[in-house]
Request: fold
Amino acid sequence: DGQDGWEKAQAFQPDLVITDLMMPRMHGYEFCEHLKGPEGIKGVRIIVASSKPFATDKAQAEAVGADAYLVKPYTPAALLGKVRELLSQAPSESPPPANETAPAPAPAAGQAQEALPVTRGQLPLYVHFWGTRGSCPAPGAATTRYGGNTACTEVRVGETLIILDCGSGMRELGSALLREYGERPITGHIFVGHTHWDHIQGFPFFAPLYNPRNSFTLYSVHGAHGSLESVFRGSMASDYFPIPLKNLACKLRFTEMTGPVDLGSAQVSFAHLNHPGICIGFRIDAQGRSVTYLSDHERFARLNGEDDNSRRNDARMTEFARGSDLLIREAQYTQEEYSARRGWGHSTFDDAVLEALNAGAKKLAIFHHDPDHTDDMMDGYIRYCRGLAQKAAGGTDCFAARDGLRIEL
Reply:
């Protein structure tokens, strides 16, 4: 728990801190920012110990003040050697990180990362896919059936509007909302798993943002190099877009998640995923029904090998998706494709089906399709996934998400 660690560090004033990255309430990057920031601990040394071997994470950890980065599993000798090395160095004043440091936000409803209990009810719940492609848009004749827009999924629980990610599909969602609401104000909750281009590129083209009667709250965790708002402000800087974030007419609020968020008719919790940089997945629990959304996740055992640490991390993901009525799961590669793309932070079809079966998910929507996968190729991959599920006799209904598909739960 990063928030608990920060409070203990303030009280204890240690010479050295060993921290993970994927922690509830406050992730390791933000913890490092606090430790090395203006209100931090003078001269403190930091070792980041993580299951994420990505070069991006190592570089980002160093940028926010980490003195060493160890990939789990490591030997006791490796850890002790690094501790001795850092403690033997003369203490130095810790400069604040170059990027802005936001204060730790007040906890959202609840502190634990488990989903909050809900009462079964009769509110309608549907899921509408507006963008299902991964990495970059893939327009053209070869992708007309599955679609070429990047990640954007609408979840509606009664009158509560939830949007998962802001890929290029968000533009079409915005147009549909304007037709639906007419002159009525739109209130929505936007949850962003991570801020790579394919998950935020549709945000400036979401037309409801430009009307003052509309209100949106954008949720994610604190960024690796500053606040959540600063990332979106930077993406709309004048070098990239003609209209700055501050000129959006709607009422827009940024909320950095530290625990589950209670929206009244639904509760949204998050879990850290295995992808370069900060990346989270979401679980929506709404009156006895559940939708789990895991984009951009490379199975730990697939990347790091089968060991206790990988099994523990993979089990954590399985439990997060446990019993989902719908699991929306990234699966970008075949087994053969993965061999040349290992360490890119994405999964195989086999891994997605295995995770859905282990979690007891009722439905599995294969999602985040590779831009090079044509409609005909996707037909074959989905037949393969269904065959895996049927062979396991696990009862999971497997299908492909596609742009425009709407599912009632």
Observations:
- Residues 92-120 have pLDDT under 50 and may be disordered.
- The longest strand covers residues 125-131.
- The radius of gyration is 21 Å.
